[in-house]
UniProtKB/TrEMBL annotation:
<dbReference type="InterPro" id="IPR003598">
    <property type="entry name" value="Ig_sub2"/>
</dbReference>
<keyword id="KW-0812">Transmembrane</keyword>
<dbReference type="Pfam" id="PF13927">
    <property type="entry name" value="Ig_3"/>
</dbReference>
<dbReference type="Pfam" id="PF13895">
    <property type="entry name" value="Ig_2"/>
</dbReference>
<feature type="domain" description="Ig-like">
    <location>
        <begin position="151"/>
        <end position="234"/>
    </location>
</feature>
<dbReference type="InterPro" id="IPR007110">
    <property type="entry name" value="Ig-like_dom"/>
</dbReference>
<keyword id="KW-0472">Membrane</keyword>
<dbReference type="InterPro" id="IPR013783">
    <property type="entry name" value="Ig-like_fold"/>
</dbReference>
<keyword id="KW-0393">Immunoglobulin domain</keyword>
<dbReference type="InterPro" id="IPR036179">
    <property type="entry name" value="Ig-like_dom_sf"/>
</dbReference>
<protein>
    <submittedName>
        <fullName>ICAM5 protein</fullName>
    </submittedName>
</protein>
<feature type="domain" description="Ig-like">
    <location>
        <begin position="51"/>
        <end position="146"/>
    </location>
</feature>
<feature type="transmembrane region" description="Helical">
    <location>
        <begin position="239"/>
        <end position="265"/>
    </location>
</feature>
<keyword id="KW-1133">Transmembrane helix</keyword>
<feature type="region of interest" description="Disordered">
    <location>
        <begin position="89"/>
        <end position="118"/>
    </location>
</feature>
<dbReference type="InterPro" id="IPR003599">
    <property type="entry name" value="Ig_sub"/>
</dbReference>
Length: 307
């Protein structure tokens, strides 16, 4: 009887009487009886079988987070208990120097010394083959591992240039790596002529003014963190400055010429002569016409205009 209950006479009488299943394992009580007495003996039956890997103990898809311990636990059944190894399969994205089928995790052998567990990197993403092995055979299961990580590598580009001419246009593009894909927010100079793209990855300015100069900051975020980057935009007004400078120079030149002319009239052209010349010297209607010499010396001609 098994466990003191069910009678298994067929099993007791002959070897190979039927196909063994895992359900046949357990404790059996063998009882021999004749008219002179009874002999009893207990026997433990162990059923060995080859490994198998199911979805419950080894899901075919895993999600890892960058920086956490890289552990690919894959449970298998079998008797004796199988040794489980999981190795990454090389794909087209792996560098040539990568070791093919490098073992990432070994489970199921208590005699193995403990090994340091590496931290997850983006290079760990890919397909792994987990193999369970014992004396009766092996079982194989492929597992796909995806690696998530916070935003990284935030870059900003100003097109066509970060030095913008007043009245011109430009676009600031923001890019960042991250899984899941990051979303974008901006801190911008306060100006009415800003237009954000539908996905918030870029901002466009038309008709640039001084209000558009300053720091443009883009922040990329996902559920694992956030990262920001900045760029400085300058609005060049050199043409306006030059125009103002030219206008100022013209005014200064005209003023200089007027002062020089008056100084010339007062100090040179009209400082000598008859009384009427000196009398007209200070008049705003006087203009020096010519100067010549005769037997009387220098003669200055003065024309008085009517008011």
């Amino acid at each position: 009887t098994r466990d003191g209950g069910t009678h298994h006479g067929g099993v007791a009488r002959g070897r190979g009487g039927r196909v063994v299943t895992r359900a046949d394992g357990g404790r059996y009580v063998c009882r021999a009886t004749n008219r002179h007495g009874v002999a009893v003996r207990s026997v433990v039956v162990t059923v060995e079988y080859q490994p198998s890997i199911g979805d419950r103990g080894c899901p075919e898809r895993r999600l890892w987070l960058e920086g956490t311990p890289a552990q690919l636990g894959c449970a298998a059944t079998g008797n004796p208990p199988p040794r489980v190894t999981c190795a990454k399969l090389r794909d087209s994205h792996d560098p040539p120097s990568a070791t093919p089928n490098a073992t990432l995790a070994e489970l199921g052998d208590s005699q193995d010394p403990p090994q340091a567990t590496p931290n997850v990197t983006r290079a760990h993403a890919g397909t792994y083959q987990c193999r369970a092995t014992n004396a009766h055979g092996s079982a194989v299961r492929n597992v796909t591992v995806a690696v998530e990580y916070g935003p990284a590598g935030v870059t900003l580009r100003v097109l066509p240039s970060a030095n913008v001419t007043r009245g011109g246009g430009f676009t600031v593009d923001c890019g960042a790596e991250g899984v899941p894909a990051p979303t974008f927010t901006w801190a911008l100079p306060p100006a009415p002529n800003l237009r954000l793209a539908a996905d918030n990855r870029s901002v466009t300015v038309t008709g640039a003014t001084t209000a558009n100069r300053g720091v443009y900051t883009c922040t990329a975020s996902n559920r694992h963190g956030r990262r920001a980057g900045s760029v400085v935009v300058r609005v060049d007004e050199s043409w306006l400055v030059a125009l103002v400078a030219l206008g100022a120079l013209g005014a200064v030149t005209a003023l200089g010429l007027a002062v020089a002319g008056g100084y010339y009239l007062k100090t040179t052209a009209c400082k000598k002569g008859e009384y009427n010349v000196r009398d007209a010297e200070g008049s705003s209607e006087a203009a020096c016409l010519h100067r010549h010499r005769d037997d009387r010396g220098e003669v200055f001609g003065i024309q008085l205009t009517q008011p």
